[in-house]
Write a structure and sequence with these properties.
The chain is α/β, with parallel strands linked by helices. Helices cover 41% and strands 26% of the residues. The longest helix is centred in the first third of the chain and has 17 residues.
């Protein structure tokens, strides 16, 4: 986060969560099975063209700043697909969509797009809690011979994903941590 411009974009993104109603408070069960008193619905942002474009630009800047090089961008269905698509458009890199389970017809593939052996793939996700979903997608890409260049996420809930992802040897690049969102809310 070296530049004022990037800091300004991050603040715009954080404000977007509140302006778009993408953070809700109550009782929720997450994909990981954990219960939470807040829910982060990044899809509220990724269905808004301005917010999605901001996410893609900020993610591109963070990846470039970290010196991460990649050949393709991938996202697991459903939440990461718009993010991966926007990032593919922003960077000019080919897109890969990772299915939750193999297609039940045709080729039976678990991806759309292609991954060639040795290619470095930037894997993106909307929200991480424990990291289980994104690590499963990473395993699918690696089973096809791809290498994970890094895993980037819009929001890390700070509930173990970073530890699980880095323990597997992957670089982890979150745009926002949930503590930043919650502290921004309390400072408003």
């Amino acid at each position: 986060m070296n530049s004022e411009m990037e800091t300004g974009k991050r603040e715009m993104l954080i404000k977007s969560f509140f302006n778009e109603g993408a953070i809700l408070f109550g009782r929720f069960v997450l994909t990981s099975g954990k219960e939470s008193d807040y829910y982060i619905n990044v899809k509220k942002l990724t269905t808004n063209p301005k917010a999605l474009k901001l996410i893609a630009k900020l993610m591109t800047e963070r990846i470039e700043e970290a010196g991460i090089e990649f050949d393709r961008v991938a996202g697991p269905e459903l939440g990461a697909v718009p993010i991966a698509t926007a990032l593919a458009l922003e960077t000019g890199k080919p897109l890969v969509i990772v299915r939750k389970k193999p297609k039940g017809h045709g080729t039976g593939s678990q991806i759309e797009g292609e991954v060639k052996p040795g290619e470095r793939v930037l894997l993106v996700e909307d929200v991480t809690t424990t990291g289980g979903s994104v690590l499963k997608a990473a395993g699918i890409i690696e089973s096809l011979g791809g290498e994970i260049a890094a895993i980037s996420v819009v929001v890390d809930r700070e509930e173990g994903a970073e530890r699980a992802i880095t323990k597997k040897g992957y670089s982890f690049v979150p745009l926002i941590r949930v503590s930043e969102l919650l502290s921004f809310n309390s400072s408003e």
